[in-house]
Design goal:
Largest sheet: 8 strands, mixed
Number of strands: 16
Radius of gyration: 29 Å
Number of domains: 2
CATH topology of the largest domain: BirA Bifunctional Protein, domain 2
CATH class of the largest domain: Alpha Beta
Low-confidence stretches: 450-454
Amino acid sequence: MTAAKDDSNTEEKEKKPKKFQTPKGVNDILPRDHEYYTYLKKIIRHRCRQAGFRRVTTPIFEFTEVFARGIGEGTDIVSKEMYVFEDKAGRSLALKPESTAGVVRAYIENGMSNWPQPVELYYIEPHFRYDKPQKGRYRQFWQFGIEVIGEKDAALDAQIIQLSRLVIEDCGVYPLVELHINNIGDFESREKYAEALKNHYIGKERSLCDSCNDRLHSNPLRLLDCKAEDCKILAQLAPKASEYISKESKEYHEKVLEYLEELGIDYIENPMLVRGLDYYNQTVFEFTVTDNKGQQNSVCGGGRYDGLTELMGGVPDTPAVGFAMGLERMIELMKRENIRVPSKDNLHIFVAQLGDVAKRKCLSLISELREHGIKTVGALGKGSMKAQMRLADKFGVPYSLILGITEVRDGTIILRDMEKGKQEIIPIEKAIEKVIEVIGEKNLDTYSPGEVIY
């Protein structure tokens, strides 16, 4: 008897559906979090439009070579972190780990070199990297970035830094970050500097972490980025980029700094800052969190990449500069500082009803209320009036409309103030007019036909 019961329990367990969870390093964006994303995107769109930037969206996946050639075969992103797969035709594709290479590909493919230069573009996109998940770092993450392609001017470098600062400022966290800036020279200077770094580190491999031992021959500039204690000590003793850059690069750097000072932007010259991607040259910069309380240190970074367009088959000597900002890191910083964002999801009114006739009348009333910009919910289920009012409390609505059998007969409806507990009986044909009066016209969620909603 016991054995039969055990068999029955085993069968029940086997039939129980599996409970699924998200893969490691990815998260659901729930409604409350979406309020932060929506707010941040609104700031970004406003600042970019002010500066004449237009939005671009590149595909979620590209041919793997776009990133391998653009970012660099020796970078951690390409060698370790890309999600690469083959399609049914055997072609190698990759989920985009960053957007600059894809935007440059789009610039070339769509003949943007024939547009008025520079072409100024911005994006707000999801990206994917097989990275070690931790606070502020995820395997699917959102980035906002801008790219200015087709013109080289130190004033442009200063202006994009100013744009990134304005976005950070609008988010309310600018006092918590500081701007670090450096110049790594042209590509010839960068190669000389990379060789000097190799010579400095060769013979010290036992003091390097495993990642830095891999970088030593593939991407030596990344050795300066490592956060391991022994690697940081060796980096402090390493040659500085300023020892290898040309006179022209130094003069260019001085111009950038002059323009930053003109714009009133404080900065810290950081000779250790190199940025790890192969396409960078000349100006590199980052906005970093000063206290780093569990936060990933960099919230925004970028620089100049004058050779990338030619490297990807475009017109030679096409200059470019840009930056990218992590939305998750910015939102976590805002939350940490208890910065609240406005919500447009709050409901205005709940419509409660009793009986089929009342429910039919409520359906058309709810539709009309919504068309007038009144955010409305109601006519749900078959619950008692008491149960419906409890539901209205849970929704947090400031007002309710109540339609019962008596109100249907009399052609009236009850408007209840949920906070004060007061209510009044009004003609049902006056309901919309009265609701608009009590919630205020400025709070209506309306738009004109044909208007584009973002």
